[in-house]
Amino acid sequence: MASAIPTFTKIGKVIRLNKHGCTNRPFYHIVVQKTRDNFDGPVIEQVGSYDAMPNSQNEKLVAVNFERVQYWLAQGAGISNPVAQLLGLSGFLPNHPQTLIQSWKNRREPPRERKLQPIKGIAPPLDNPKI
Amino acid sequence: MFARSSSRIFNVINISCIQSRSARAWVRKPLGSPMAKSKMFRIAPKKFIPADEKAEVKRLYDNYFHQMKSLRHYFFEQSLEQAESGEVAQMKHRLEEEEHIRLMEENRLENEKTAKLREEKLKIQAEKTRENILASLINKEEETRLYEIQIEAFLEKQKATPFIQAENIEKAIEEALANPVDFNFAIDLDGYVYRGRETAIEKIPEEERERLRSN
């Protein structure tokens, strides 16, 4: 190995969310891509998925392949903020500051109107509609 | 997305090379155009964040980036270790070993073959050199023999010539004084000697013709 210290400044590859799905129904793929490629461009590897619409149990399902994420982090891939937040929530990475900031802001400010309404009548309604 | 992208041609922005009937994508406001009336005296609202919140945010981010950096380093080192000792690496190592042994075996066989060929070639060469040496020795012998014979002949000839030894000297002197040799003569290309005043050999009678012979 030429140098044991990898350079993180030049991030060629990135782990981020690619929005698929259709109108009013977003679905994200957690994906390893080159930074300059588009959301519909070539993807190096899909490493998980994130469903933004809550399901019948009021859950937003996230799937992550932690082994591959670890591999790509070792190779020097960057992570986008949403993916970092998800991984932090899952416990693989430390909690992202954005989660904490958002949580105290939610506690402070009154809630606002949201497009994505949780499904009523199946599970108990959420206390804070912001989440 | 690329079909709608606008290009900058001759510093004119917002022109699409590809014809499309849908709405033109807006890249940016042309550089020479004036500010819009609605935006003339606009002051952008700046969010006020209290100092303690800022400090907290900074602390959180610093910690986070520190942790991420160390995690990345750790993952990298893990990957290095795995590369050395993982399954794939072991299999690769094993395959390489086998390949190495096979190639060494092949090399050995090849070497043997070439060694055999070399042996034969060397034998033939040795034979040839031996013959050459023998022939040259024989030649040398012949030459020395001939040389010796020549030397013998030469010596004989030299010995045959009458040398004047110390004992013969007085006799030789008396003889020389008694028989003076006259060199006042001419000679022509055929070796005929002209002592008198005659210049043509036909004028001299047969009995008195003298001829110098070259040995």
UniProtKB/TrEMBL annotation, chain A:
GO terms for biological process: translation. GO terms for molecular function: structural constituent of ribosome. This is Small ribosomal subunit protein bS16m. Coiled coil: none annotated. Pfam families: Ribosomal_S16. Residues 106-131 are annotated as: Disordered. It is found in: Mitochondrion. Residues 106-116 have a biased composition (Basic and acidic residues). Keywords: Mitochondrion, Ribonucleoprotein, Ribosomal protein. InterPro entries: Ribosomal_bS16, Ribosomal_bS16_dom_sf. One of its GO terms (cellular component) is small ribosomal subunit. Belongs to the bacterial ribosomal protein bS16 family. Signal peptide: none annotated.
UniProtKB/TrEMBL annotation, chain B:
The keyword Transit peptide applies. Its main location: mitochondrion. The keyword Mitochondrion applies. Keywords: Mitochondrion, Ribonucleoprotein, Ribosomal protein, Transit peptide. InterPro entries: Ribosomal_mS26. GO terms for cellular component: mitochondrial small ribosomal subunit. It is found in: Mitochondrion. Belongs to the mitochondrion-specific ribosomal protein mS26 family. This is Small ribosomal subunit protein mS26. It comes from Daphnia pulex (Water flea). The gene is EOG090X0FQ9.
